[in-house]
Design brief:
alpha+beta; two-stranded antiparallel ribbon; transmembrane; DUF1559 domain-containing protein; Pilin-like
């Protein structure tokens, strides 16, 4: 009979017992956790980059939108200028700043008078010109939007307009008294007809309320757009005037016969 295996025999392969952990097959390491970590890091990087790009692009997008609104506003004023010139051609005078009743009470704005020259004849025909603009007889028209009178940058009630006349005895619009181009001796290109005032001075498009020279000068120009606003000159040209304009120059642009030397404004 053979002798049992001697545990102390160095030739015995089981003489040095391996730890149990080492005897078991090692599990394969899962790559799922690594993939999730990599994807998560990539997502965070993408979010961060997207945020940076959005921060860079947003001001540019806003500036582009305002530029488009400013161009549309300029086109509105050009249409108004053309309508005023066509009115002058038809009646040999500009409309008064506002019409009045027999007692001198203001009734309607110049914006009402030029409606037929803005392709709004049908709307004009609905107005009772003998009654105030806000009379019950004119309520339907007063609630109607005229797109040409709406600055796209203006917020709030779309029936309120920024396009107003500067009512002044020395200006193109001297209240209820109409003016002829021949009376503008400073030159049509140097004289303001209509200004785009700040939103705080907006009026209903039918209302005979306008703006006077003192209010215009106190505002330092107009600010419906960044840095200033548009002004319609008597020759029909539209200019963008900054808020930093010299009040003396601005006053000279309003008067029609002061013989001011405005220079390059």
């Amino acid at each position: 009979m053979s002798n049992p295996v001697d545990p102390g025999n160095s030739a015995n392969p089981y003489s040095e017992t391996m730890p149990v952990e080492a005897q078991l097959a090692s599990p394969k390491k899962s790559s799922t956790g690594c993939i999730i970590a990599v994807l998560g890091a990539g997502f965070l990087v993408t979010l961060m980059c997207g945020g940076v790009l959005l921060g860079l692009l947003l001001p540019a997008v806003q500036a582009a939108r305002e530029a488009a609104r400013r161009m549309q506003c300029s086109n509105n004023m050009k249409q108004i200028g053309l309508a005023l010139h066509n009115y002058h051609s038809a009646y040999n005078q500009l409309p008064p700043a506002y019409t009045v009743d027999e007692d001198g009470n203001p009734l309607h704005s110049w914006r009402v008078a030029i409606l037929p020259f803005l392709e709004q004849q049908a709307l004009y025909n609905q107005i009772d010109l003998s009654k105030p603009w806000d009379a019950p007889e004119n309520a339907s028209v007063a609630s109607t939007l005229v797109p040409t009178y709406a600055c796209p940058s203006k917020e709030g009630d779309p029936l309120m307009t920024n396009y107003v006349a500067v009512v002044d005895p020395a200006g193109v619009f001297a209240g209820a008294i109409p003016t002829k181009f021949s009376q503008i001796t400073d030159g049509l290109a140097n004289t303001i007809m209509i200004v785009e005032t700040g939103h705080e001075n907006a009026v209903h498009w039918m209302s005979p309320d306008e703006i006077d020279l003192a209010t215009l000068l106190a505002a330092g120009g107009s600010d419906p757009h960044v840095g200033g606003g548009h002004m319609l000159m008597a020759d029909g040209a539209v200019k963008f005037i900054t808020n930093s304009i010299d009040p003396v120059v601005l006053e000279g642009m309003v008067t029609k016969d002061g013989q001011e030397d405005l220079g390059d404004f």
